[in-house]
Q: What sequence folds into this?
């Protein structure tokens, strides 16, 4: 886990203790500070966070007699990055077989990071990803076109995609 949690992704930890087995699984206990949606499945535990923070992850082994206990603790910084890609277009129907459309991002992004926006109309990519929240595109052939937007936090690698199929019609 690299510390970046994207759009509600789950973190999975695996108990790789040398003496772990299905028979003694109950001898192990996870303590995951601030974690949500915790699910254990054999040696694995999955969970998520909704807020940034520095959290402790503790795995404790208690021997069957209850007399001996051993713990392993990891402090982990977690950056929760929620991105929702969304956009508007000024014209969904274009007459006279060609015309220009203006696309505007109204995506929801976090406060930290540097974000890029990648647009597609039909099979065309509208240039390299950049920091522009809007773009204009000329469509010169009749048909129906999908419109897509990918928003990426280039610092964390987290991204979100919105695709509207058959969104623009040129008649």
A:
């Amino acid at each position: 886990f690299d510390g970046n949690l994207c759009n509600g992704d789950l973190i999975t930890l695996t108990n790789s203790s040398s003496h772990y087995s299905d028979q003694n699984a109950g001898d192990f206990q996870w303590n995951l500070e601030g974690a949500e949606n915790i699910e254990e499945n054999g040696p694995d535990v999955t969970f998520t966070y909704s807020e940034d923070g520095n959290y402790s992850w503790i795995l404790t082994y208690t021997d069957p007699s209850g007399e001996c206990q051993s713990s392993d603790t990891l402090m982990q910084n977690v950056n929760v990055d929620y991105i929702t890609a969304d956009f508007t277009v000024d014209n969904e129907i274009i007459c006279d077989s060609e015309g220009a459309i203006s696309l505007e991002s109204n995506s929801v992004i976090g406060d930290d990071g540097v974000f890029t926006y990648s647009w597609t109309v039909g099979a065309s990519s509208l240039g390299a990803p950049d920091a522009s929240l809007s773009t204009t595109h000329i469509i010169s052939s009749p048909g129906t076109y999908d419109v897509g937007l990918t928003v990426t936090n280039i610092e964390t690698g987290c991204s979100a995609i919105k695709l509207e199929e058959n969104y623009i019609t040129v008649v």
Residues 59 and 155 are 30 Å apart (CA to CA). The chain has a mean pLDDT of 91. The two ends are 50 Å apart (CA to CA).
